[in-house]
Amino acid sequence: MTTHTPEFLGLRNGTEFWSQADYGKGVIIGLLDSGIYAAHASFNDHGVPPPPTRWKGSCDAAQCNNKLIGAKSLIAGDDSDDEEGHGTHTSSTAAGNFVTGASYNGVGTGTAAGIAPSAHIAMYKVCVARDCKSSAILAGLEEAIKDGVDVLSLSLGSSTSASFDQDPISIGTFSAVSKGILVVCAAGNSGPAQRSVTNEAPWLLTVAASSVDRSFGANIHLGNGKSIDGEALTQIANPSSELHSLLYSEEWRYCNYDYDSSITCKILVCKDNKSRAQLSEIRNIVGAGAAGVVLFNDEISGYTTIVTDYNSSVVQVTAADGEALIAYIVSTNNSSLASLAYNGTKFGVRPAPVVASFSSRGPSSFAPNILKPDILAPGLNILAAWP
């Protein structure tokens, strides 16, 4: 379920390619992940026929239907419910049904759909608390093969490279591929370092993550008349155009300021360290009286902005724009001024697609003669289903 990715890929509702493929009708997609939130609107079965007779699986979710035909846990004592969100997110991205009027707090508005909205979904829960046991993965793959899936999707993998005869995904998927099942795996999130790719086996379709041509626009209007473009998932309605003092400190560069008068009515410039603690700090800082926060990427993230819902006046910018903003503050002897503005959802942003900084790079560290990843697909700032 995403409101823009299909269109970005040229899959508009009613267009020839999508309709010729019948929107994935009759295809059974098995996913190994953290479970699924069956009650989500993305998993309605409107227009989805019953599963093919070759389907031999079962569904233990509370709301199984012609869309969600399979759901089971391979973890002892657990059920197929998604307690983390990742499995729900990936399932809807792959095969969520059409949902009109979807949005995330008013941004990204449109009709949401997965890439194969008429396909069937079978979820095999193999992960809990971000821990995916090898035994559960192997059991899930065995179940999916026995149940009769056509495609397997695994957005998981080891953080380290292993020989194919020691890697559970390589072992289990070899059996799947030998039975004619297409296996699609994520390249990993350990980029941009070279040889960081996972799921390197040659029988896998290994997918890197890219941006799309959409942004959630925001601007930093500087006191010198210049402007810096950024993004903000939280779009503040009717923001003030009043100029506020910009504040940056090396000591407090990660937004770990004291909640006192030193931050009142100031726009704080901070470096993103991608921690949950920082997210909480930023919300508390704005709640304590700061006029807003400009959060700039670290050098590794570069131009990849992973938009985050701070539920407050926060604009995210690239590493280069962050350095430019600090230079402006220094040049004015800390008497610089700025205001924050929000522009809503923008399309046609260029360049796109761009490889996400976190997307793992090849080649394979275990078998350097294998060039991985195989393909690039949207995987950055994808607004999809969540429990």
UniProtKB/TrEMBL annotation:
<keyword id="KW-0645">Protease</keyword>
<keyword id="KW-0732">Signal</keyword>
<dbReference type="InterPro" id="IPR045051">
    <property type="entry name" value="SBT"/>
</dbReference>
<dbReference type="InterPro" id="IPR023827">
    <property type="entry name" value="Peptidase_S8_Asp-AS"/>
</dbReference>
<keyword id="KW-0720">Serine protease</keyword>
<dbReference type="GO" id="GO:0006508">
    <property type="term" value="P:proteolysis"/>
</dbReference>
<dbReference type="Pfam" id="PF00082">
    <property type="entry name" value="Peptidase_S8"/>
</dbReference>
<dbReference type="GO" id="GO:0004252">
    <property type="term" value="F:serine-type endopeptidase activity"/>
</dbReference>
<protein>
    <recommendedName>
        <fullName>Peptidase S8/S53 domain-containing protein</fullName>
    </recommendedName>
</protein>
<feature type="domain" description="Peptidase S8/S53">
    <location>
        <begin position="24"/>
        <end position="380"/>
    </location>
</feature>
<comment type="similarity">
    <text>Belongs to the peptidase S8 family.</text>
</comment>
<dbReference type="InterPro" id="IPR015500">
    <property type="entry name" value="Peptidase_S8_subtilisin-rel"/>
</dbReference>
<keyword id="KW-0378">Hydrolase</keyword>
<dbReference type="InterPro" id="IPR036852">
    <property type="entry name" value="Peptidase_S8/S53_dom_sf"/>
</dbReference>
<dbReference type="InterPro" id="IPR000209">
    <property type="entry name" value="Peptidase_S8/S53_dom"/>
</dbReference>
